[in-house]
Amino acid sequence: MGSRSRNLLCKSSSSTLLFLSPSSTSAQLRFNSFTPSKRRSMATQPSSSASSPTTNDTASPSPSPSPSSAIDFLSLCHRLKTTKRAGWVKRDIKGPESISDHMYRMGLMALIAPDIPGIDRDKCIKMAIVHDIAEAIVGDITPSDGVPKAEKSRKEREALEHMCKLLGAESRAKEMSELWNEYEENSTPEAKIVKDFDKVEMILQALEYENEQGRDLEEFFQSTAGKLQTEMGKAWALEIASRRRKEG
């Protein structure tokens, strides 16, 4: 979710300048315990021939961003901290959460969720961090904006591609892109879980605003009705609904 339209000037990896215009508004399940062999390593694994001399002096793509590319990327991501979620802005919520606020609590959801056999917890945490990252450029496009789903996806995909080029590190950018696409396509069990986290975080936030600001935000609860895909997501949503009835 986002707020106002603005033109964003981004520096590409080729030193050209790119103007991008953001949108106007823009089960019981159980997580697997992980062993390092089941996780993607944080460091590049040496090849079996690493100690052998080679006649090919061509450098392989760097797995990590340069300091310059890292800071460029992180500076662009700053907009995730300052852009408020559009749904709350449109309802005149005081001090609405930012896109970054939303993604951070989703990451915590993945961290504290019960173990689920066959589910990669680390992937869920990473996916929660990445799923709205393109909104740093396009802003938060909501259903009320009238933007077709395919067009919204196209805009966000183009923004993500730009951010990956800005980052420069091939393996990091590839992982980020794969996580985003997996979420967007709802193609894996992890994506389905994180999709539920997205909805559960929203209705929890709605409940908090109702309690803090005396608002009726029923439309947000209605928007998620029947759309949760996992037993855990449904159970958490039922707990929120139960608390809402008691506090209402």
UniProtKB/TrEMBL annotation:
Belongs to the HDDC2 family. GO terms for molecular function: 5'-deoxynucleotidase activity; metal ion binding. Keywords: Hydrolase, Metal-binding. Homodimer. It comes from the Eukaryota. GO terms for cellular component: cytoplasm. The lineage of its organism: Eukaryota, Viridiplantae, Streptophyta, Embryophyta, Tracheophyta. Its EC number is 3.1.3.89. InterPro entries: HD/PDEase_dom (IPR003607), HD_domain (IPR006674), YfbR/HDDC2 (IPR039356). The keyword Amino-acid biosynthesis does not apply. Its cofactor is Co(2+); Mn(2+). Residues 42-61 have a biased composition (Low complexity). Catalyzes the dephosphorylation of the nucleoside 5'-monophosphates deoxyadenosine monophosphate (dAMP), deoxycytidine monophosphate (dCMP), deoxyguanosine monophosphate (dGMP) and deoxythymidine monophosphate (dTMP). It comes from Salix viminalis. Residues 32-69 are annotated as: Disordered. Signal peptide: none annotated. It catalyses: a 2'-deoxyribonucleoside 5'-phosphate + H2O = a 2'-deoxyribonucleoside + phosphate. It is an enzyme of class 3 (hydrolase). Residues 99-203 form the HD domain. This is 5'-deoxynucleotidase.
